[in-house]
Write a structure and sequence with these properties.
49% helix; 7 helices; 5-stranded parallel sheet; alpha/beta; 14% strand; Rossmann fold; 166 residues
Length: 166
């Protein structure tokens, strides 16, 4: 014969313990949790573009796609732009000062922690020879200026999805 279980006492103890722990703990703002979640899940894109207007325009375009965007004007600013946070994609101009984009791409491809990051050239250099050199330097895609905003967005979304699958 089964004995009837009186769980009221157990439930009361659990509720009391939970209230005590909630009262002693820090209250978490749900908006902060959502922001943190969004920051963790938002892919990050690094734009390396020497033209300030173009860099700002690309940044606005990509931020409208809910991407975490960092920027650098040239290769010398790369360390500050990367910091210690992971990068999911690099958008790179060919015509950079000091070290051009082709040279920089080769250096990125030789670096252990950066070599597998998708790399997209975005450049005014639009001849078949230029595009071929871009792919030889390690590009995953090459977009010529002037560009269509939708093409940039689609290319980046596609490469980020492919990266997720790896």
């Amino acid at each position: 014969m089964s004995k009837k279980i009186d769980a009221k006492d157990l439930v009361a103890k659990i509720e009391r313990l939970a209230r005590e722990r909630m009262a002693s703990g820090e209250v978490v703002d749900l908006n902060s949790v959502r922001d943190l979640k969004n920051r963790k899940t938002r892919p990050s894109v690094l734009i390396i573009e020497d033209d300030e207007t173009m860099r700002a325009a690309l940044k606005r375009i990509l931020e409208s796609e809910n991407l975490d965007v960092r920027t650098a004007a040239d290769g010398t600013q790369l360390g500050d732009a990367i910091g210690d946070k992971p990068i999911d994609l690099i958008l790179l101009d060919v015509g950079l000062p000091w070290i051009n984009g082709l040279e920089l791409a080769k250096l990125l491809r030789e670096h252990d922690s950066l070599k597998d990051i998708p790399l997209v050239f975005i450049s005014g250099k639009a001849t078949e020879f230029d595009i071929k050199r871009g792919f030889e330097a390690g590009a995953d895609d090459y977009i010529t200026k002037p560009f269509e905003i939708d093409k940039v967005k689609k290319t980046i979304r596609t490469l980020l999805e492919l990266k997720k699958e790896d």
